[in-house]
User: Which sequence fits this backbone?
């Protein structure tokens, strides 16, 4: 057979089609319906053609086929975004290559595109199950590649596969753990997916949607002692601009890099790691005043931390904080949080009255406000009535039913009217502590809003919701709600399916921490731990000694084995008899001399001579082996005999 | 021009280096020192893929993509080892020279031995044509196709043995040199004149024998000269022509085939005729000798003698 006339391996095209169909499925987050249909149509056409054994198209024909489609995709650039367009082109390249599959060379190119396309789907999916599916697709592609370059008749041997695993596993594991990680080199295009996290504006009513979502927001593991539940206020956003109805984020937050905080009081230092689910925003979560942070994380004004780009996939970062009030950054910040709006006249009057009553004493005013919320018939509810134009007035003096954003929003407006700088903080409060796995699980329904007011140049936290429904803070949301409202939260967690899902979630957590969350700082720590290990020198020296002995033994073994057989046998005989034949005497004669000299052992020596001659002159390996055995057996006797 | 010369010089250097490293022998076992291995073109693309994935994984800070690129790297290393072991300890034995007549393609029989080897490509160094051994398990015989050559005796050029197994990422190859000759004998010419001359000579020498002696008649066999058919006897048995046999005394006397000192086309023609004559004589079991301008082979008979005579013709 000539080498350049090999046909494609059997069923190659079918495997490729299967792989591409799965890819189309995996790319669903990036594919509009019409494009999906188009790709499926192309796949079906190719499957039909292969079923009828129709030959490949010429590259020219395929170019004519694909060029309009490429143009079509380019036109969609605006809706798709760069990343999706790239994925589309990858898919199109893979599917188009099918039509020209002729030689193994073409098939190799197809394999290459497949690898890239499959690996790209990790951008969307990092959950454990899907990650394994994608890995198995990579494996299938590897198998196809092997089929291209192996004999058709040969079967894949399990022994070889095991060898592949044994050889490669330590390699890639080591590379993964120790190979240098770099920060992102440039900004990559991201998915255009609607955010599910906190929005940039706080309009009482927008949290209701979040509250019902059981989806994971982030997970936290504490390296130091875990703080009390009352202190689990995860700050993410600061709302300072109020337009009478909704709160917005001030533009100063687009600026980055606040100098590191220096104030350390006696408060306890917290070290913790967060694992954040993608929420397509930059804001990250922190407790109290952040002192230091792991690398990609940036800091922002008002003690917030943020990611350099939008969080489009699960990330993890490390923080060190103290549970301490955030210091005032500038006089401008103070002015910013005193601004008032002409809306809600009743509320503002109420605030001014409070200021007069307590002579502007912030602490007293806040306490009075908390008492007011407790004594009046305020209720906590997930389904408050719709509010009109003067929303705060209506809430405070008419409906008196609402959830955290209502209370926070109203409190901030009252405090500002009373001349106390105040702002609304958005984030998460609480979470479920997983006792067995030792981590805190924060869900989207733990989203919360509270207030910070200025006291002695420090921003003190005040949570009005705690006043109205303290259980909300201490026990989580479920306890504060009525039975029907509790049903609003997804209520299937108690049955066995729910428990199974919980176990799966734990598995997913460890997968996230150890595989997905492994980052530069973890790597740095690993290196430090490795270099700090004290027994390195002992290990190295013992390894060296073992290596020297092994090499020496191997050298001796090969030298001995490859020695010329007659010399080796002669040497062994001389060693056994503790003498040497004189110059000019052959080994045979020498042995014969022994036989004559020791008539008692003549039979033994004649046998030795016979074996020696057979092994040397007839190249009889069996005889050589027998001779060696004989020498070994009669070692003691031979040593005694002298000529 | 200069680049060509330079390349030729390099090529010669390389050949000399190979000769000192791997002298030709009848039995070659590919050891560690004679197997070369480099990434193939596809392997280079694969390296590019790894870099691309590393960049992608870094920029998205995506550990799974990074992990994929590391897995690819380790797979590549495994492929390198595997490609090496696909050739390592392969044993090639050549037991006899290749012999053919001019203008007919020749083959050389090689014996390959290895526990397992896949997708071996075997060809001559510097030739485009390569043959494939898809699967070798244990011992196998392999017919190496040789190009058409002019009359003469050539040493077997170095072989080029390569394989892209198992993933096409690496090409492992070796240049084993085998101790074998390619003999190209003159093309046997089947012209009337060549046969005629022998027959006439034979008949002339034995004209004294009676043509009708019954001992000297035998049934016609394919290959017998039509001139020797006894036409007179044909009507009696039309299906069974009878020919006069060249009887015993003829074979007893040695035939001498003499190649005169000629050159060019005339020499080639004479050699071709002599070649045919030799073959015919051997088929008839005759005793024959050969005399060329260079040497003289004493009369003998048998396949060995024929081979020696033909080799002399090839060397003329």
Assistant:
């Amino acid at each position: 057979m000539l080498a350049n006339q090999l046909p494609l391996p059997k069923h190659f095209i079918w495997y490729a089609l299967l792989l591409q169909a799965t890819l189309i499925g995996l790319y669903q987050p990036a594919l509009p319906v019409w494009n999906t249909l188009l790709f499926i149509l192309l796949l079906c056409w190719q499957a039909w053609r292969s079923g009828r054994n129709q030959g490949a198209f010429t590259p020219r024909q395929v170019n004519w086929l694909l060029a309009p489609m490429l143009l079509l995709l380019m036109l969609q650039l605006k809706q798709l975004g760069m990343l999706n367009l790239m994925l589309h082109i990858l898919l199109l390249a893979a599917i188009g290559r099918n039509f020209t599959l002729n030689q193994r060379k073409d098939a190799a190119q197809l394999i290459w595109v497949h690898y890239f396309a499959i690996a790209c789907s990790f951008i969307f999916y990092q959950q454990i199950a899907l990650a394994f599916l994608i890995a198995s697709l990579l494996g299938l592609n590897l198998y196809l590649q092997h089929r291209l370059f192996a004999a058709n008749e040969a079967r894949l041997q399990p022994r070889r596969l095991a060898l592949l695993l044994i050889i490669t596993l330590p390699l890639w594991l080591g590379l993964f753990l120790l190979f240098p990680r770099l920060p992102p080199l440039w900004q990559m295009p991201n998915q255009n997916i609607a955010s599910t996290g906190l929005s940039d504006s706080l309009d009482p009513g927008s949290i209701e949607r979040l509250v019902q979502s059981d989806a994971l927001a982030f997970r936290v593991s504490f390296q130091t002692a875990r703080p009390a539940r009352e202190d689990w206020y995860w700050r993410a956003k600061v709302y300072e601009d109020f337009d009478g109805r909704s709160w917005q984020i001030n533009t100063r937050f687009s600026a980055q890099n606040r100098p590191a905080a220096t104030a350390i009081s006696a408060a306890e230092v917290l070290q913790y790691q967060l694992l954040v689910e993608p929420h397509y925003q930059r804001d990250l979560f922190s407790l109290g005043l952040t002192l230091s942070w792991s690398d990609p994380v940036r800091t922002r004004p008002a003690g917030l931390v943020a990611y350099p780009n939008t969080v489009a996939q699960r990330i993890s970062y490390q923080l060190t904080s103290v549970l301490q009030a955030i210091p005032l950054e500038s006089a401008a910040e103070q002015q910013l949080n005193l601004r008032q709006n002409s809306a809600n006249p009743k509320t503002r009057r109420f605030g001014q009255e409070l200021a007069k009553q307590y002579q502007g004493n912030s602490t007293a005013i806040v306490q009075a406000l908390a008492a007011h919320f407790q004594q009046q018939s305020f209720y906590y509810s997930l389904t408050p009535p719709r509010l009109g134009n003067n929303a705060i007035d209506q809430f405070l003096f008419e409906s008196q039913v609402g959830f955290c954003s209502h209370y926070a929003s109203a409190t901030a407006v009252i405090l500002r009217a009373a001349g106390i700088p105040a702002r609304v903080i958005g984030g998460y409060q609480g979470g479920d502590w997983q006792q067995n796995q030792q981590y805190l699980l924060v869900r989207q329904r733990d989203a919360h809003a509270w207030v910070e007011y200025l006291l002695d140049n420090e921003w003190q936290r005040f949570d009005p919701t705690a006043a109205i429904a303290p259980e909300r803070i201490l026990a989580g949301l479920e306890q504060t709600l009525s039975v029907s409202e509790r049903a609003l939260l997804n209520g299937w967690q108690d049955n066995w399916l729910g428990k199974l899902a919980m176990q799966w979630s734990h598995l997913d957590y460890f997968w996230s921490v150890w595989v997905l969350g492994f980052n530069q700082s973890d790597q740095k720590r690993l290196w430090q731990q490795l270099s700090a290990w004290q027994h390195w020198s002992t290990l190295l020296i013992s390894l060296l000694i073992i290596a020297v002995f092994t090499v020496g033994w191997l050298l001796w073994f090969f030298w001995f084995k490859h020695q010329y057989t007659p010399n080796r046998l002669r040497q062994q005989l001389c060693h056994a008899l503790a003498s040497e034949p004189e110059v000019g005497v052959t080994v045979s004669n020498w042995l014969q001399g022994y036989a004559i000299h020791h008539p008692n052992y003549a039979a033994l020596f004649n046998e030795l001579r016979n074996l020696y001659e057979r092994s040397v002159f007839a190249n009889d390996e069996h005889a050589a082996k027998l001779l060696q055995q004989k020498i070994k057996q009669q070692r003691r006797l031979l040593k005694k005999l002298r000529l | 021009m200069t680049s060509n010369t330079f390349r030729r010089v390099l090529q010669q250097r390389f050949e000399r280096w190979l000769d000192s490293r791997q002298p030709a022998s009848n039995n070659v076992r590919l050891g560690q020192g004679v197997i070369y291995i480099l990434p193939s073109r596809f392997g280079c693309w694969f390296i590019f893929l790894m870099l691309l994935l590393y960049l992608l994984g870094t920029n998205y800070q995506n550990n799974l993509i990074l992990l994929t690129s590391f897995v690819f790297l380790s797979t590549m290393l495994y492929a390198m080892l595997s490609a090496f072991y696909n050739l390592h300890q392969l044993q090639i034995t050549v037991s006899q020279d290749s012999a053919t007549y001019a203008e007919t393609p020749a083959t050389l029989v090689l014996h390959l031995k290895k526990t397992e080897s896949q997708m071996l490509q075997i060809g001559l160094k510097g030739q485009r044509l390569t043959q494939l051994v898809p699967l070798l398990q244990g011992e196998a015989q392999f017919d190496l196709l040789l190009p058409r050559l002019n009359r003469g005796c050539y040493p077997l050029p170095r072989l080029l043995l390569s394989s892209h197994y198992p993933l096409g990422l690496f090409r492992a190859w070796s240049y084993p040199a085998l101790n074998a000759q390619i003999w190209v004998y003159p093309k046997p010419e089947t012209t009337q004149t060549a046969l005629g001359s022998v027959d006439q000579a034979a008949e002339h020498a034995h004209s004294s024998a009676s043509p009708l002696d019954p001992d000297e008649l035998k049934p016609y066999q394919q290959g017998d000269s039509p001139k020797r058919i006894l036409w007179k006897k044909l009507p009696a048995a039309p299906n069974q022509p009878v020919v006069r046999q060249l009887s015993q005394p003829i074979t007893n006397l040695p035939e001498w085939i003499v190649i005169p000192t000629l050159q060019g086309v005339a020499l080639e023609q004479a050699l071709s005729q002599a070649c045919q004559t030799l073959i015919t004589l051997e088929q008839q079991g005759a005793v024959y000798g050969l005399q060329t301008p260079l040497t003289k082979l004493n009369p003998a008979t048998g396949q060995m003698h024929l081979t020696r005579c033909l080799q002399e013709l090839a060397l003329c």
